[in-house]
């Protein structure tokens, strides 16, 4: 069966520090991968999605970036964190055909607090 | 513009009472529709989905949802709520040619004894 792992579960970082959140999927090949951010009262905001290695689409311009160095690995990064980057970050995957006929499967999320 | 709206930010129901959570969407054509549930500090779990066919779909944990094209709605229902149903519920929509889900802002469900 497919599983998705996301770490760390919680992270406290000072403003201006770098960020690296990692997500890996097991049990499937060539998944579509997604990073969402959830801020209190604002629902889920799609940040990035990827349909293949090295292919990244950005939905929201910001100081975050994403990379997909391997088929089942998706990394969210920042060179310098802002206070506004605090939130709950969720990684998700869907089947090859995309979210339209394959639901998203979510990791357990990373709670990021920027101080 | 494409959008999905959950009009109720918070809902409180008594244990054993029925529940209906509202979801409306605005898309050019009928999209694919989903409901997810999120327990505190956790990721999202898929409750049910609608792609085509029967407009009343059954999901896990006793939930169901009804797609109404004329009202552009996809409301989630449960006949008898349990205390363990207290969570955040998200309606999500994706265009049939799209990749990524568009989520509503969520409805927080509180269940009282």
Description:
The complex is a heterodimer of chains A (115) and B (113). Chain A has strands spanning 3-7, 10-13, 19-26, 32-38, 44-52, 55-58, 64-70, 73-78, 87-94, 105-106, 110-114. By secondary structure, chain A is mainly β. Chain A has a single domain (3-114), classed as Immunoglobulin-like. Chain A is globular, with a radius of gyration of 13 Å. Chain B is mainly β and 113 residues long. The mean pLDDT of chain B is 92. Chain B has no helices and 12 strands. Chain B has a single domain, classed as Immunoglobulin-like, CATH 2.60.40. The interface between A and B is medium-sized, with 27 and 27 residues.
Task: Write out key terms for the chains shown.
heterodimer; A: 115 residues; mainly beta; Immunoglobulin-like; 11 strands; 57% strand; B: 113 residues; 4-stranded antiparallel β-sheet; 12 strands
What is the tally of beta strands of chain A? Answer: 11
The CATH topology of chain A comes to Immunoglobulin-like
Question: What is the N-to-C succession of helices and strands of chain A?
Answer: EEEEEEEEEEE
- Please give the domain count of chain B: 1
Under CATH at level 1, the class of chain B stands as Mainly Beta
Structural class of chain B: mainly beta
Number of domains of chain A: 1
* Structural Rg of chain B: 13 Å
If interface size is counted as residues with C-beta under 8 Å from the partner's C-beta, which chains form the largest one?
A-B, 27 and 27 residues
CATH homologous superfamily heading of chain B: Immunoglobulins
Order of helices and strands of chain B: EEEEEEEEEEEE
Q: Which parts of chain A are unreliable, with pLDDT below 50 for 5 consecutive residues or more?
A: none
Strand coverage percent of chain A: over 45%
């Amino acid at each position: 069966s497919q599983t998705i792992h996301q770490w760390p579960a919680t992270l406290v970082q000072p403003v201006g520090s770098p960020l690296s959140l990692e997500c890996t999927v097991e049990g499937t090949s060539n998944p579509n991968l997604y990073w969402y951010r959830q801020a209190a009262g604002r629902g889920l905001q799609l940040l990035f999605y990827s349909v293949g290695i090295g292919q990244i689409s950005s939905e929201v311009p910001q100081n975050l970036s994403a990379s997909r160095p391997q088929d089942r690995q998706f990394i969210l990064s920042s060179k310098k964190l802002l206070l506004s980057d605090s939130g709950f970050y969720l990684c998700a995957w869907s089947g090859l055909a995309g979210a339209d006929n394959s639901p998203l499967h979510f990791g357990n999320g990373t709670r990021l607090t920027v101080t | 513009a494409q959008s999905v709206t959950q009009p109720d930010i918070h809902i409180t129901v008594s244990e054993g009472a029925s529940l209906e959570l509202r979801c409306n969407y605005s898309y050019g054509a009928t999209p694919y529709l989903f409901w997810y549930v999120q327990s505190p500090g956790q990721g999202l779990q898929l409750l049910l989905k609608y792609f085509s066919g029967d407009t009343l779909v059954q999901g896990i944990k006793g939930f169901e949802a009804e797609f109404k094209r004329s009202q552009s709605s996809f409301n989630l229902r449960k006949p008898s709520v349990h205390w363990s149903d207290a969570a955040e519920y998200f309606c999500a929509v994706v265009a049939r040619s799209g990749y990524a889900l568009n989520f509503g802002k969520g409805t927080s469900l509180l269940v009282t004894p």
